[in-house]
TrEMBL record:
Belongs to the glucose-6-phosphate dehydrogenase family. This is Glucose-6-phosphate 1-dehydrogenase. Pathway: Carbohydrate degradation; pentose phosphate pathway; D-ribulose 5-phosphate from D-glucose 6-phosphate (oxidative stage): step 1/3. InterPro entries: G6P_DH (IPR001282), G6P_DH_AS (IPR019796), G6P_DH_C (IPR022675), G6P_DH_NAD-bd (IPR022674), NAD(P)-bd_dom_sf (IPR036291). GO terms for molecular function: glucose-6-phosphate dehydrogenase activity; NADP binding. Its EC number is 1.1.1.49. One of its GO terms (cellular component) is chloroplast stroma. HAMAP family: G6PD (MF_00966). Catalyzes the rate-limiting step of the oxidative pentose-phosphate pathway, which represents a route for the dissimilation of carbohydrates besides glycolysis. Gene3D superfamilies: Dihydrodipicolinate Reductase, domain 2, NAD(P)-binding Rossmann-like Domain.
Length: 597
C-alpha cells in the first residue's frame, strides 16, 4: 500500500505558484493502490498535464487516472523516477515508458476570439482569472484577446480588470494576483477572415512561447456565422507547430439538423473531432456535474431511478428578465433552440442515461447519445409556445418582447416553451419528461424535479385528504440560484394527534459548504486546457439532439403557430398547465415555496 499512502495527501508543485489546497487537484485526485498502479505501469504513461496523468491503454482507449505529485517531488523528472521506483518488478520497469511533457518546456496560449464582446467580458476573462487565482493554470500561459475593435494591450487589460473578482471565501492577495494575471493578457486586433492577421497573431504568440512546446486554445466567442472563417484562418495561420491546437465553439451549433451538420462538416475541413470542444455551459454547473454522483454513488437512488417508481421528471428554466440587448440573436433562434435543445436536453440525457462503463468521456457520451437516440419523436401537440407581452406593475412598465428595437414587429419567436418528451426504452417507457423554459417570467431559477409515484395501499391516505398528488415524494435538484437538493417526504406533525405534513430533507449548499461554487466556465475552460472532453458535446450527440427538435421547429415555423402571450413577470402561458395536465402532471415549481431558506 506504499503507493496509496504516498499519493493520497499530495500537493501541486507544478502550477504557477504552489498551494497546498489547490482546488484543481483536490477535486480530481484519485488515490490508487500499488497493485492498480502496477497494472497501469506497463502501458504507456503520458503526463500530458502537470496535474493530470493519462494512462494510455493502446488497445482500449484512454484510462484516465488523476493524481498529483508527492510533496517532496519538485520536478517532473524526479516524479518519473518516483513513479518507477514504486514498482519493484524489473520487468515492469523495463516495459514502462513515461512521456513527460515537462511544464517548464511547454506553454498554453488561450486566444479569446471576440474579446471585445459580451461573453468574453462577462464570463471568459473572469473564469480564466479565477483559474489563475486558484493556481489551476499551467505555469506558462498567455491570454490573447482577438477582435476587430482597435485596442492596445493596456486597454484590453483595463476592460478585463473591470470584471475580475476574487473568491469571496479567500480574497488573499487579490489585487496582487489580478495584476499578475493582467500582465499575462495581450490583445491583437484583426479581421475574422484574414489569414494575414492570424499570421501576425501567430508571430506574437511565438514571441511569448519562447521556443517552448506550444499548445493553443482558441475560444470562439463570436457570432456563429463567422466561426468557419475564423477556424480556417486560425488553422492555416496560427495553429501550433509542435503542440496541440483546440477550439472551443460556442452555441448555437446551427439552427436545425441540416445547418448543424453543415457546420460540423465545415469545421472538419480544418479540425478533427478531437480538436472541437462544443461548449454547453450548463454541463459545467456544479449541480449538473453532481447529478451522476448523486445517482451512481448513493445506493438509495439507483433502485428508484426508473418507470417503476418515478412518475414524471421536470426540467425547469426560468429567467426574470427578457431578451434585453440580445433580441437580434434571439429572434432567429427562440427559446427552444436557445435553452431546450441544448441545456435542458443535455441534463435530461445525464439524468436518464444508464451507468457508463467508466467516467471516461467516451463512455459517458456513449450513454448520453443512447438516451437521445431512444427518444420518441416530439409531436407538435406536446409543445406549447409563448411570448411575453408588456406588463405594468405599480409605476413600472415592463416591455413586450416585440418592443425591443432589434426584434422585427410581429415576430412569432417563442420566448417561452413547454414540451412533453418520452424515452422509448425499458427504463423510461411511458414516463413524461417535461421541459419548461422561459424569459421574462416571475423568477430566475433552474431546477430538476423528480416526482415519484403514490405509495400503494398507503396506511395514511385518510390522513391526507383527497389530493394524493400532494403527498408524493419529490426530489428537487436546484441548479441555480442558491444551489441545493431536497427531498419532500411525508412526516408526522409532532403532537398527540396523527396529523401528517410534507417536509423537506435539505441539502442547502450555502449552509453545508463554505466554499464559493465555481462558475461553469471555469470548469469547462480547465477541461479544455487539459483535453478532458466529458463535458463537451460530441457530434453524434448534437445530431441526435437536433433530430429530436428539428421536425417540430419546422412545423411551428411553417404553420406560423402563434405563441400564447403572457405578461412580463408572470408564470407563463396557461397552456403549459394544460399540457402537463394531459400527462397527469402538475408543475412542481408552481407553489410559492422557499424550501432552502
Ligand atoms: N453573451 C452570452 O451571455 C452568451 C453568448 N453565447 C454565444 O457566445 C458567442 C459570443 O456571444 P457575445 O459575446 O454575446 O456576442 P457579441 O455580439 O458581443 O459578439 C462578440 C464580438 O464579436 C464581434 N462581432 C459582433 N457582431 C459581429 C458581426 N456581425 N460581424 C463580425 N463580428 C462581429 C464583435 O467584436 P469586434 O467588433 O470587436 O470584432 C463582438 O465584440 C455567440 O456565439 C453567442 O451565441 C452563448 C451563451 C451565452
Ligand atoms: O445559453 C444561454 O444561457 C443563458 C442563461 O445562462 P445562466 O448560466 O445565466 O443560467 C441565457 O440567458 C441565454 O439566453 C442563453 O443563450
Amino acid at each position: 500500500m506504499a503507493a496509496l499512502s504516498s499519493f493520497s495527501s499530495l500537493n501541486c508543485p507544478t502550477t504557477s505558484s504552489s498551494s497546498s489546497s489547490s482546488p484543481c487537484l483536490s477535486s480530481r485526485r484519485l488515490s490508487f493502490s500499488s497493485s492498480a498502479l502496477k497494472k497501469f505501469l506497463p502501458k504507456k504513461i503520458s503526463l500530458q498535464s502537470p496535474r493530470y496523468w493519462n494512462v494510455i491503454n493502446s488497445q482500449d482507449g484512454t484510462v484516465p487516472v488523476t493524481a498529483s505529485p508527492p510533496e517532496n517531488v519538485t520536478s517532473l523528472r524526479k516524479l518519473k523516477d518516483e513513479l518507477l521506483s514504486i514498482t519493484s518488478s524489473e520487468e515492469v520497469r523495463e516495459e514502462t515508458s513515461v512521456d513527460i511533457v515537462d511544464e517548464h518546456n511547454s506553454t498554453v496560449s488561450i486566444v479569446v476570439v471576440g474579446a471585445s464582446g459580451d461573453l468574453a467580458k462577462k464570463k471568459i476573462f473572469p473564469a480564466l482569472f479565477a483559474l489563475y487565482y486558484e493556481d489551476c493554470l499551467p505555469k506558462h500561459f498567455t491570454v490573447f484577446g482577438y477582435a476587430r475593435s482597435k485596442m492596445t494591450d493596456a486597454e484590453l487589460r483595463d476592460m478585463v480588470s473591470r470584471t475580475l473578482t476574487c473568491r469571496i471565501d479567500k480574497r488573499e492577495n487579490c489585487s496582487e494576483k489580478m495584476e499578475q494575471f493582467l500582465k499575462r493578457c495581450f490583445y491583437h486586433s484583426g479581421q475574422y477572415d484574414s489569414e494575414k492577421n492570424f499570421a501576425e497573431l501567430d508571430m506574437k504568440l511565438r514571441d511569448h512561447e519562447k521556443g517552448r512546446v506550444s499548445n493553443r486554445l482558441f475560444y470562439l466567442s463570436i457570432p456563429p456565422y463567422i466561426f468557419i472563417e475564423v477556424v480556417r484562418c486560425a488553422s492555416n495561420s496560427a495553429s501550433s507547430a509542435n503542440g496541440w491546437t483546440r477550439v472551443i465553439v460556442e452555441k448555437p451549433f446551427g439552427r436545425d439538423s441540416e445547418s448543424s451538420a453543415s457546420l460540423t462538416r465545415d469545421l472538419k475541413q480544418y479540425l478533427v473531432e478531437d480538436q472541437i470542444f462544443r461548449i454547453d455551459h450548463y454541463l459545467g454547473k456544479e449541480l449538473v456535474e453532481n447529478l451522476s454522483v448523486l445517482r451512481f454513488s448513493n445506493l438509495i437512488f439507483g433502485p428508484l431511478w426508473s418507470r417503476q417508481y418515478i412518475r414524471n421528471v421536470q426540467f425547469i428554466f426560468s429567467e426574470d428578465f427578457g431578451t434585453e440587448g440580445r433580441g437580434g440573436y434571439f429572434d432567429s433562434y427562440g427559446i427552444i433552440r436557445d435553452i431546450m435543445q441544448n441545456h435542458l436536453l443535455q441534463i435530461l440525457a445525464l439524468f436518464a442515461m444508464e451507468t457508463p462503463v467508466s467516467l471516461d468521456a467516451e463512455d459517458v457520451r456513449n450513454e448520453k447519445v443512447k438516451v437521445l437516440r431512444s427518444m420518441k419523436p416530439l409531436q407538435l401537440e406536446n409543445v406549447v409556445i409563448g411570448q411575453y407581452k408588456s406588463h405594468t406593475k405599480g409605476s413600472v412598465t415592463y416591455p413586450a418582447y416585440t418592443d425591443d428595437n432589434t426584434v422585427p414587429k410581429g415576430s412569432l419567436t417563442p420566448t417561452f416553451a413547454a414540451a412533453a418528451l418520452f424515452i422509448n426504452n425499458a427504463r423510461w417507457d411511458g414516463v413524461p419528461f417535461l421541459m419548461k423554459a422561459g424569459k421574462a417570467l416571475h423568477s430566475k431559477i433552474a431546477e430538476i424535479r423528480v416526482q415519484f409515484k403514490h405509495v400503494p395501499g398507503s396506511l395514511y391516505n385518510s390522513s391526507f385528504g383527497t389530493d394524493l398528488d400532494r403527498t408524493t415524494n419529490e426530489l428537487v435538484i436546484r441548479l441555480q440560484p442558491d444551489e441545493g437538493i431536497y427531498l419532500k417526504i411525508n412526516n408526522k406533525v409532532p403532537g398527540l394527534a396523527m396529523r401528517l405534513d410534507q417536509s423537506n430533507l435539505n441539502l442547502h449548499y450555502a449552509a453545508r459548504y463554505a466554499k464559493e461554487i465555481p462558475d461553469a466556465y471555469e470548469r469547462l475552460l480547465l477541461d479544455a486546457i487539459e483535453g478532458e472532453r466529458r463535458l463537451f458535446i460530441r457530434s453524434d450527440e448534437l445530431d441526435a439532439a437536433w433530430a429530436l427538435f428539428t421536425p417540430v421547429l419546422k412545423e411551428l415555423e411553417e404553420k406560423k403557430v402563434m405563441p400564447e402571450l403572457y405578461p412580463y413577470g408572470s408564470r407563463g402561458p396557461v397552456g403549459a398547465h394544460y399540457l402537463a395536465a394531459r400527462h397527469n402532471v402538475q408543475w412542481g415549481d408552481i407553489s410559492a415555496e422557499h424550501p432552502l431558506e
